[in-house]
Amino acid sequence: MKPKIGIYGFSGCWGEQIVILNCEDELLDIFGAVDIVDFLGGSSVNDTESRLLIAFVEGSIANAREEASLRKIRERTDLLIACGSCACFGGVAAMDARAPRAEVIKQVYGMNGPAGSWDIGPHRPLSDFVKVDLCIPGCPIEKTEFLRVVSSLLNGDAPVMPEYPVCVECKMKENECLLLRGLPCAGPVTRAGCDARCPSYNIACVGCRGPVEEANMSSLENVLQQKKFTLDEIKRKLRTFAAPVMDKMENRG
């Protein structure tokens, strides 16, 4: 019997599910190796009850209904994989997490909006609610990284995720350092895995894969000051995709 897999989306753009569907040629191999039984983005007929080996979940959690659904998924799966920066870190929707919800709702819907009638909380990553076994960061995730994770898990291996910053990938590609050219690049403190796509096109890294573990902010601050930038400019970039994580890092610091 082939292992059963579910693919789910909460508050997000469904970009990760589109990446999975865009695996194209590899999809036949995936379907041959696993039984994708619950995938609303890919099928109108789904098994919402049977036991799963792996659940791939994208999107942040913003209300009690989503939290309840996430907990149900966690209960029925052996492994839960957070896919994309919304699921891993909160994502773009979490940028306003520190703002009072009533104020945010008023700004969006106006004075006559739903106010207290809607269950709209600050967007938070999956790990704030349930155990997450692995994170695949990105906005959206990388197709090659998703396929590598699936392959490793089906072979019984723990996927090896990059634990170094984007700068390492830039060096491997022999890119000219954009920071040294005077651009506010977040590469030194952003998780690798994108093959330095933006810097390779002379676009400063925006931090969409979230902050690398033990990011050396103080060292980066020294470089930024030499180039007449401030650390706040990089932190704002990282907050775009990982505000809850940045808040925790600042509280620890």
Task: Describe the fold and architecture.
- This protein folds into two domains: 4-93 and 122-154, NADH:ubiquinone oxidoreductase-like, 20kDa subunit (Rossmann fold, 3-Layer(aba) Sandwich), CATH 3.40.50.700; 166-252, no CATH class.
- Helix 3 (64-76) links the parallel strand 3 and strand 4 (77-83).
- The longest helix has 22 residues, at 231-252.
- A five-stranded parallel beta sheet has the order 2-1-3-4-5.
- The mean pLDDT is 90.
- The chain has helices at 15-21, 25-33, 64-76, 85-89, 101-109, 143-154, 166-172, 197-200, 217-226, 231-252; strands at 4-9, 35-39, 52-58, 77-83, 134-136.
- By secondary structure, it is of the alpha/beta class.
- It is built from ten helices and five strands, in the order βααββαβααβααααα.
Strand content bin: 5-15%
Average per-residue pLDDT, rounded, comes to 90
Q: Which superfamily, in CATH terms, is the homologous superfamily of the largest domain?
A: NADH:ubiquinone oxidoreductase-like, 20kDa subunit
Give the % helix. 25-40%
The profile of the biggest β sheet is: 5 strands, parallel
- What is the second-level CATH architecture of the largest domain? 3-Layer(aba) Sandwich
CATH topology of the largest domain, what is it called?
Rossmann fold
CATH class of the largest domain: Alpha Beta
Structural class: alpha/beta
Radius of gyration: 19 Å
Strand count? 5
Low-pLDDT runs of 5+ residues are none
What is the string of SSEs from the N terminus onward?
Answer: EHHEEHEHHEHHHHH
The total count of helices amounts to 10
Shape: globular
Distance between the termini: 49 Å
Question: How many domain units?
Answer: 2
Strand order of the largest sheet: 2-1-3-4-5
